[in-house]
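Good day; I would like, with your permission, to put a structural problem before you. What I wish to show you is a protein chain and, alongside it, a tokenised description of its three-dimensional fold. I would ask you to consider whether the tokens describe a fold that such a sequence might reasonably adopt. You will find the record immediately after this paragraph:
***
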Amino acid sequence: MMSTASFESVQKDDRSRRQVADMTNAKTPRKEFLEDLSVLQWILTFLFLGVTCIILMVGLLFTSLWLFPTMCFIWLVIDWKTPERGSRRKPSMKKWKVWEHLRDYFPIKLVKTAELNPNKNYILGCHPHGIMSIGAFSCFTTGFCGFAEAFPGMRATLAILAGLFRIPLFREYIMGAGLVPVSKPSLAHLLSKSGTGNAVVIVIGGAAESLASHPGEHTVLVKQRKGFVRVALEFGADLVPVYSFGETELFQQITFSEGTLGRTLQDLFKKITGFAPCLFIGERWVLLPSRIPITTVVGSPISVPQRLTPTQEEVDHYHQLYMDGLSKLFHEHKVSCGLSETHKLCFI
């Protein structure tokens, strides 16, 4: 016999899916097709564009077009530090129509719970990573989820894997989108040399957390991730917990148990490249995710003092405050975002 809690959970899941179905039925076939293409291009970019650029550059070195990749590699050396100096943002990319279709596919929504003072700087810790962090990208990199309108005077910058900025051509694309490497020099530049009103967004769990992304589960890798707290203390940037409800519901992931050959190879690949090779399947066309709403909730700031050389006790203290704030944010908004009261947030 199904328990009351399980029955309530099923009811809520059914209601969420019916709401999505109603929204989908209201769209024209052309609109749905454009949304499908927009999401597909995002997924293909996420998975293959960097690798394609590497193969292209290396392959062209052995052709009559060898001068092109040679010049690209020379430019890479000359322009090496630009990503850590705020990148080379192209504002027009934020308004590409493809991002609007990407938002509407799920749809993706940004929810504000407190004010952010434009006279201060902040580090926003975004959870969970999911397979591709679609909610974080859409809300904090594109101009279609209303961040600028919700937080006047604030500039959001998403920090991602630093190694991606070492790939010729690909680096130009992600810099144009306003992305920056999640490295100490990069964060230091944004929090100390770019004035105030900066909201630096870090997906705390990173690639390792993507391996824990499964529908119905809410697991965040944060217990031993304290570097962002130390940076916040060094520059006096307040901490803000952020949770993207629905992020882990988009794909079905093939999981390898700890100790198996598959998991060992995944961990080894992640250690070498910094990227976790998840094996997943979408709802349609193999790669297209489920049309599950993603609601990214921005929590209340946690005031952090400036300490040029923070002690471990201070780091631990504010790290605990951050985890408490994240837990509170999750439990206060889980029901309104389609979960049941029985859902729990697991810290690892």
